[in-house]
Specification:
By secondary structure, the chain is mainly α. Helices cover 58% and strands 5% of the residues. The strands form two sheets. Strands 3, 4, 5 and 6 form a four-stranded parallel beta sheet that branches. It has a two-stranded parallel sheet with strand order 1-2. Helix 5 runs antiparallel to helix 8. The longest helix has 36 residues. It is elongated. The two termini are 79 Å apart.
Length: 416
């Protein structure tokens, strides 16, 4: 997913709010049916390609923001390469008189960059911590991105951005800083290899602090543990360590000076293992998290959430797809009511549906005559004594009352 597309979609949907909701619903639902069972991200991008992205109505200012951030990232890489070359020329400077101090090289190329890695690791803490917020506010990359934000009015890095915007700003700053670090080590290693190939470097070690050759041997053996099985020749031997200790160049015997270049495999692997590889791993992590944050920047936007609802909304219209033919009005003949032919029946009123006079009027309407006062029964008192000579019973109940089990049991008792 491209950063330019995300910003353009968000801006286009903000402007699309002026379109009547009914038109947006009809348009987006038709496109939603075409997108099928894709993921939310794919459905939004399909919608974008089918609407504003295809007809050229996308805001023209949005790609400028993405281009500015890409230029910022490339600038970080360029600065990193320059810094790496400068550190290499400084750390491996050899005047032919004093050998290059191994401890100085390790300090400039490994120790200091590792210390600078600590703020990055602290910035990986959850975004709710004040440490993370403070470190990111001091990041030069974040400051530069905020300046771009303010100029273009996107408000992703500038101000008190929250939610998905803050998460994307965090991982963009971390990824750009790791890109700078990787470029730094690429320039450092490239310049170091050129110096090793085209110049004759001599390495040694010395310290104001009293260090024995045995202590330095143990120290280098510990540092070389990660590549000891892969490249055993990149571990300084005790003899090399003992012979390369110096106070000044004149202290070294003429035959020993030729061996002082044997330190370079150890220094090269130290830079790669403790400097370059951790930064490459952090860069891969930051790029992955930045891509995840970019999806959140798109899918958590309120206008995009509304778009996804419209894409999934059922298509309902009051208009018939097939024209309907209106029925011709004509005289209606009412259906005849049941006719009891004047027969006599016993009236029974269930649950006080009507009074006695109402039951007689209803029975007369149906063509029956009631010979005696109506009997009454209720759900709570269903027992009723029916005369044995009764051939017909007219039961009057409420038309809106559902057939309860009590009424069913009452009918069963009457039939018995």
């Amino acid at each position: 997913m491209l950063f330019d597309d995300v910003l353009s979609i968000r801006a286009w949907l903000d402007a699309d709010r002026d379109t009547p909701y009914g038109e947006r619903l009809q348009r987006d639902r038709v496109l939603g049916r075409r997108s099928g069972g894709k993921s939310d991200e794919e459905r939004v991008l399909h919608w974008w390609r089918a609407t504003a992205g295809a007809d050229g109505t996308a805001p023209k200012g949005m790609p400028r923001h993405g281009a500015a951030l890409r230029l910022l990232t490339l600038s970080c890489g360029f600065v990193g390469v320059l810094l790496g070359v400068g550190v290499a020329l400084t750390a491996f400077h050899y005047d032919g008189i004093h050998p290059i101090n191994v401890f100085v090289v390790l300090g400039l190329t490994v120790a200091i960059p590792v210390l600078l890695l600590i703020p990055t690791l602290l910035a990986l803490l959850p975004a709710t911590t004040s440490i993370e917020a403070g470190l990111l506010s001091l990041s030069p990359v974040r400051v530069a991105a905020a300046a771009i934000d303010q100029h273009l009015g996107m408000n992703l890095f500038a101000g008190a951005a929250a939610g998905a915007g803050r998460r994307y700003a965090k991982w963009f700053a971390i990824a750009a800083s790791q890109w700078l670090a990787v470029a730094f080590y690429a320039g450092l290693l490239g310049c170091t290899m050129l110096l090793l190939i085209f110049t004759d470097l001599a390495f040694g070690w010395s310290s104001t602090v009293s260090l024995s050759a045995e202590a330095v041997t143990r120290f280098t053996a510990i540092l070389a543990l990660p590549w000891s099985a892969l490249a055993p020749g990149a571990i300084p031997s005790p003899e090399l360590i003992e012979q390369s200790r110096f106070v000044r160049m004149s202290d070294l015997a003429p035959g020993i000076a030729a061996r002082l270049g044997d330190w370079w495999p150890f220094l090269f692997f130290s830079i790669v293992v403790y400097g370059f590889l951790p930064r490459v791993g952090l860069l891969a992590l930051a790029l992955w998290r930045r891509e995840t944050a970019l999806r959140g920047l798109l899918l958590n936007d309120p206008e995009v959430v509304g778009l996804l609802e419209r894409l999934s909304h059922p298509l309902v219209t009051p208009e018939a797809r097939i024209p309907e033919t209106a029925a011709q009005p004509g005289p209606r003949t009412p259906e005849p009511a049941p006719d009891g032919h004047g027969q006599t029946a016993l009236g029974l009123i269930w649950n006080d549906a009507v009074d006695d006079s109402g039951a007689r009027l209803l029975a007369k309407t149906l063509g029956y005559g009631l010979a005696a006062p109506c009997l009454t029964a209720t759900s709570s008192q269903p027992d009723v004594e029916v005369p044995g000579d009764s051939e017909r019973i007219l039961i009057v109940t409420k038309g809106w009352e559902p057939p309860m089990l009590e009424f069913h049991d009452f009918l069963t008792q009457l039939r018995a």
